[in-house]
Structure formats: C-alpha cells, structure tokens
Amino acid sequence: MPDSFADDNVFLKIVQREVPARILYQDEEVTAFQDANPVAPTHVLVVPNKPLRTLNDATPEDACLLGKMILTAQRLAGQLGIDQSGYRIVVNCNQHGGQTVYHLHLHLLGGRRMTWPPG
Ligand code: 5GP
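Output (structure tokens, whole complex):
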C-alpha cells in the first residue's frame, strides 16, 4: 500500500479516529458513519477498516467482509427507522461510477423516495 494512499485516505483516518466523524457503528472489520454532505435525510457510509481503494480491489477472500458491510447497512436501516419505508445501497466505483473517495464504501440512503435511473 503506497504511503500516499494511506496519507490521503480520509476514511482510513476516520476508521482510526484521527479525523472526526459521527460514527454509528464500529467493530474490528467495518465502520459506519454519517456522510458529511448528506444527499438524503439518512445518509450513512459503511467502510471496511482495511484500505481497499475500490470495489475492483476486492477479492474472493473479501466475500465475508462485503457481506458484512451490506448486513451492517441493513441493521442500521432498521435502527434508523427506514427499513419499512425503504432505502437504497450504492457502491460507486471509479470515475464513471462517481467515486470521489478512494477507500471502498457503501452508501446507505433513505428517508425520501429515491429516483430511478440515477443521473
Ligand atoms: P463517493 O462519491 O466516493 O461514492 O462518496 C464519497 C462520500 O464521502 C460523499 O458522499 C461525501 O459527502 C463523503 N465524504 C467525503 N469526505 C468526507 C469526510 O471527510 N467525512 C465524511 N463523514 N464524509 C465525507
């Protein structure tokens, strides 16, 4: 892992509690925190604690980790009261996917009706 990636990686710094964030959940594998610029009434990010740049960097060994990220979002959706009204889980990958922070993350979005298709 190049130092520049770790140095520039704000989500890794949030995981390590070096940068403040409203953390909703953390264990040894994943961290969930409020998005700093929410695009929905509920907008939570779920990240792996280990630095993976994009979804492209996940391997079969990360299958449990990816499942845990989704189940963490599902559980938080219940705790935040949006499970019955509904929610969307999004993973942006690279430029065309709209990724701006290069530490793999899942968006949990809810609290309003989502449009489809996305822009
Ligand atoms: P992406 O576009 O990469 O899929 O999503 C990155 C998300 O991270 C954006 O929704 C943006 O608002 C959020 N974000 C960027 N920097 C920070 C930060 O320092 N703290 C928090 N909590 N969210 C951030």
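The first strand starts at residue 23 and ends at 26.
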